[in-house]
Amino acid sequence: MSDWDKEVDILVIGSGAGGLMAALVGADNRADVLVVEKADKWGGTSATSGGGIWIPGSDVAKQAGFEDNLDDAFTYLRKLSADNVPDDNIRAYVDNAAPMLRWLMANTPVQYMAFPYPDYHAENPGGSAKGFRTHLPSPLDGKALGADIRTLRFASPAASLFGYLNWHFSETYELLYRQKGWMKNLVRNMAKYWLDLPFRLTSRKDRRLTLGNALAGGLRMALNCKGVPLWLETPLKELVREGDAVTGAVVEKGGKPYRIRARKGIVLAAGGFDKNQAMRADNAPLYPAARYSGGVTSNTGDSIVAGEAIGAGTMNMQSAWAAPVFYVPGEDRGRLCTVERALPGCIMVNQSGERFLNEAASYHVVGQQMARRQAEHGDADPCWMIFDHEYRHKFPMGPLYPLMPTAMHGKGVRSILKKGRSIEELAGRIGVDPARLSAAVSRFNAGAAKGEDPEFHRGEAAYDKMYGDFRHQPNPCLRPLDKGPFYAMPIYPGDIGTNGGLMTNARGQVVDGEGKAIPGLYAVGNNAASAMGESYPGAGVTLGPALTFGYVAARHMTGGNA
User: Which PANTHER family would you find in this protein's record (predicted)?
Assistant: First the structure.
């Protein structure tokens, strides 16, 4: 084909962390790189995330005193992952994750610290109860982005104050547990935003980038230094395959088809099919509701469909990064419920008024259990988070931020909070049988008074305790609900993105249904079927592989050793 409108070495479709990493490594290896993004904002779901990455054996973990074993990490992942995920893909992730992070920190403003965050199934062989495989990014000054900060995606409402004021993980802890100095930090951070008038009025952004904004922002800063362009509002329309190889793509630019040749390869990094209701219904019936997904609205699976059209295989399309979510009417996504479920003074019940799970388990496990319960019994969409007066005024609950009374939130938030002077009155407000709910609370309270949960063992696993309140003993996750009035908020079986997609090999190359690599085509992040299968081994196993395989793919197509 000779009618190309533009030629580059590497074309990256999508501007999430995996795509930006592939672009940066390619540019560092002297490739001519172009990034195109379908939406009018860049950063993808990565920018709205917590920014955490799961990296075994990292240099920063060693500096923190944690000596990891890569064989243990492989054993841990292999046991949890789906049987159809090749060993080579898991091994490639484990072996390349630490070198990727070393390169990232040496070549971008992005800096990570290892965190004592237990693996989600730390009791399994190879798991780490101490943590230090999960890494969190340090804040960055967004001023270095210049005008590009205006088009950086805002942080998720679940990870920021009103969607504008960014928080670091340690500051969230201070607020959550009212640790010493929390009021000072709250006031200082709010003042930094509201008093930074020239910057705030022109960008509406918080100058200080944290969590996923810090990761995406730092990658973009490094790309800008390399002179790599990023075109917004440029969706992929189709891939061009000539013979065995993919040689280019047709995108839409300015409302017209625009043909781009990629001499070394195309990296598909455009996310999953989170917001494509039809694709979810066809492929992932256990997770049918697109509106509950925490993915960004532009994640509609276009690049997965384009890959299938030229012969790419797919795998585990039925899977998602499951999660319980709050859904505020009028918002375009669900808000991940992470911390709230583990804190003492709350329980979750289905529409029959019964507990059916360990509320403090990982969000993926809880999300899966909710989805299966809904599919089998039809009474978990929504469930109800029940909490008492002490909890309400001691901890934030979902959209109810610290110090912010319900009246300060929009009508959508106020409409989902229910209140009753007694458990029976609350049951009537939420349409649950009063006798069943009262009995469930009584059973829970009897055990919680002794720090025990004989039904579901809440607070026994290392991960459960991670988000508990250690000031409360003997079990940081358990306290009777006995201090009325009582409250309830609906919580839905949702996800933070789909994780089935195009089949890839250990080099990030897309393969066909028989496992044969398609030259010139790579896929990373949720665009590719995850090496985790349908599991969620630890915090950061979404972004960790996205960055790692972006690194691996770019090195492979530019002649590196990967």
Answer: 3-OXOSTEROID 1-DEHYDROGENASE (PTHR43400:SF10), FUMARATE REDUCTASE (PTHR43400)
